[in-house]
Fold each of these.
Amino acid sequence: MIAEQSKSSTGSHLLYETGCVAGIRLDTPTPEWVRLWPVGFRELPESDKFHKWQVIELDAVKSRRDSRPESFTPHLHTLKLGDVIESKNKWRNRRELLGGLLGETTLCDLMAAQGGGG
């Protein structure tokens, strides 16, 4: 996972916090961006709380609520934590994971791809 962004949502009579996380898919022939939502990070057991730049494995399905091609709904009960990718050697290992994604896409490109202009 690369980043986490939290926001509040309401459900029935409870206020709970959910957010989306951005990451890189490593199960595809080439790296791809992925957005996972909803993630109730604060409600996860301590043993399942992942860090930025930590490899995670989980099942997810294409989001039915979000038309962005990178958006998926995670099945958090399948979450498995992997290694944290170190930032040593000027982020060498992280840059290698990014592969062709590094500098490939601008915010304008992303917005245009989802029909939001740019």
Amino acid sequence: MKKALNIDEIAYDANMGCTIVRHYLDFLIENGLAEERSEKGKTIYAITERGAMVYRILNFQKYIEKLTKSLRVMDDASQLIPIISKGTDDDKEDTEE
């Protein structure tokens, strides 16, 4: 896991303004997904174990959705192959006559 970051570092990495990041951090902290710490007089933020678990679940869900989409495409293609092959066979018969 990445080290804890201050709000400026998070905003820079996320390409967002500090005010918006603060809003999201408040939500994450309220829901136990991130925590605020004080280190060497600076306020830093880190993901909690619960936050890491939610992150992994969301990534797995994205993976499953991508896999499902790929399987649908493969299923559609497998249904088209016999139709395309039949058309090719008909063309061969026409040229042989």
Amino acid sequence: MGRPASSWCDQSRKRWNYVKPGSANGTVIRVPGRGVRKKDGTLGDLRATLEVTVPHDLSSKAKSALEDLRIATAGPDPREELLRRARQE
């Protein structure tokens, strides 16, 4: 059984993780062989929808790290073009 394209390997734990860093809320992931048992006895694939929660209270160190991330990833927002196209239709 091959691993799905959406997986990544955590080398320190030697296991497959099916949630990629940066995954968005509502993303559906597939975990092969972890679902309901089929009539032939094999296990199906588990499908799960991610619900991402954001902490309400951040320490000053966490806020500083987020600000550093915002600065490091500053640039054109790819969603602006999508929004412009959606408004034209």
Amino acid sequence: MTGEVTLTGKVLPVGGVRQKVLAAFRAGIREIVLPRKNSKDLDEVPQEVLARLRFHFVGSIEEVLPLALDRRPRAPLAGSGAARLARARARRVPERRMPARS
């Protein structure tokens, strides 16, 4: 997560939305919370990436908290770096340990 919130709870726009969205996509993140004023910045993101992500546009911290603090586990996107890492961990052979010398 990145961004700024005022003392009154207003969510402020952020910069570098294209780079942040692409990095999140590569990491296997499927849902992204963005300030409402940044919705126009998604024009810079490729359509094939946008089609595989879910966006939540918020204006206040009250809208952010239920989204950010949801504890349901989510599976990583297929083909993402996180998905490849999960597959590699599942294939990993248990390490053999040598018996201790007396």
